[in-house]
Amino acid sequence: MKKMKKIVSALLAGTMAAMMLVGCGQGSQTAGSDANNAAQNSGNTEETQLTGTIEFWNDKLQNTEQSEVDKIFDSIKNLTGITVEPIAYPDTAAYQTAMQQSIREDSAPGLFTWWSGPQLETLVENDLVEDLSDLWDDYVAANGVSNDIKDALSVDGKVYAVPYSIIYNTMIYNKDLFSQYNLEVPETFDDFLNVCQTLKDNGITPILLKNDSWAGFIWFQALIASFEPQLYQDICDGTKDYTDPDVVKVMGIWQDMLDKGYFSTPMTIQDMEKSLASGSAAMMLEPNYEAGMLVKEYGMVAGENLGTFVLPSMNGDKKIIFYEVSPLCVAKASSQKDLAKEVLKKWFTKENQTVLTEVTDNVNTSQVETSNACVNEIISYTTDTDNYQMMLRYYENTPEEIRDVALNELMKFELGDAGADQVLQTIQDKADEVFGK
Predict the structure, then answer these.
(1) In 7-58, where do the E strands start and end?
(2) pLDDT, tens digit, for every residue of 136-191?
(3) Is 77 helix (H, G, I), strand (E, B) or coil?
(4) Which of 26, 89, 85 is nearest to 63 (CA)?
(5) N or C: which terminus of the chain carries fewer CB neighbours within 10 A?
(6) Distance between CA atoms of residues 419 and 414, nearest Å
(7) Residue 144 CB contacts under 8 Å (≥ 6 apart), including other chains
(8) Which tens digit of pLDDT belongs to each residue from 96-111?
């Protein structure tokens, strides 16, 4: 990652700076200097209840019922005395634009979510986010957040974000369909292909695909890492080419699965959920919160007719769980930043994280208990280091210039609009440019 980080920093710093020349603030900023002074004068007395208002910008809560959102921020107000006003943007592009326009202003939101990897590093290189290293041990790790994800939120040994969410991607499946066709959870990749073929032979769509324009990388990363975990990391950091014979071989495996009809036509996540719940499709490779949605919205019963497993290795390696850490940052220029850091001191308490889990189905700390057997099962995989390995997902694990090209090309491949050789060469051309080969 060191090689990649140096290259990405040089390439992205100028771009980010240029995009941030527009200085207009977004939204209503309600935390003034009085509230800021109150935070500065509060010292380290944890019982001190502050007053004031900060904004929390995000692209995570746009599809969450307002009554559920209120539960989260009522919780943090009860713990801190600070009012946190969430502002959820409808899509990623609109959100990024708004943050780029406001982040240098004192009217910037105190708290905001972002992306790990090169995108977080770009903010750090431009001195736009607070160093939160002094909060990590006492307020984050001490409350049960795994230290394993600290590196994904750090640059040059300093922590510049805390996790808003830690999301784990596993196979989520309809257990009734497996029982109906006498199928067991696959232990090898050949077992997995046999499951797919049996389902297909019986008129069931084996695997659901998402139609989001960026989603083509999901099965690319899964199959590459199933073939060889180190190969995945090597193409992410430029050690190996996308045209490497092993990558070409994996693309051939993916093409064969597509040709055999193992995947659905890409569809919305809502249609994916309906298909899996109704039994017209069997499996999807999605984040752990989908196990919560299928229970809440479609009446499935976790552990009974809804289950999880991790895609097996092709070569006997550990099974790979891809994770996504959504950084929660404090804008350095914001007049709300001191109150924001006070909020973070209570954000990872068991009381607050329990509410977050109830609303979002994300489990960030070991202190939280959940009633969803599937979510608990997924968390248990992440602690079984003998059989499972955690890897940062592709979206955050490679330079964004390469990633953006790859997302377009991999979706073309998934849709049958381009062949593997063409797709891999196009991605490699961009990788050569970025990595200076």
Answers:
(1) 53-58
(2) 999 999 998 888 788 889 999 999 999 999 999 999 999 999 999 999 999 999 99
(3) helix
(4) 89
(5) C
(6) 9
(7) 348, 350, 353, 365, 366, 367, 368
(8) 999 999 999 999 999 9
Whether 391 contacts 320, CB under 8 Å: yes
Q: Which amino acid is at 239?
A: T
**Residues of the chain above pLDDT 70, percent:** 89
User: Residue 153 has what DSSP assignment?
Assistant: G
- Residue holding tokens 């200076």? 436
Q: Report yes or no: 20 and 104 within 8 Å, Cβ to Cβ.
A: yes
Give the pairing of strands 111-113 and 154-155: unpaired
Other beta carbons within 10 Å of 139:
20
Alpha helices, DSSP H, located in 81-188:
92-102, 118-125, 133-135, 175-180
pTM of the entire predicted model: 0.76
DSSP string computed for 219-282: HHHHHHHHH-HHHHHHHHHTSS-TT-HHHHHHHHHHHHHHHTT-BPPPB-HHHHHHHHHHTSEE
**Both structure tokens of 384:** 């079984």
Name 55's Cβ contacts closer than 8 Å, sequence gap at least 6.
Answer: 27, 28, 29, 30, 31, 84, 85, 86, 87, 109, 110, 111, 336
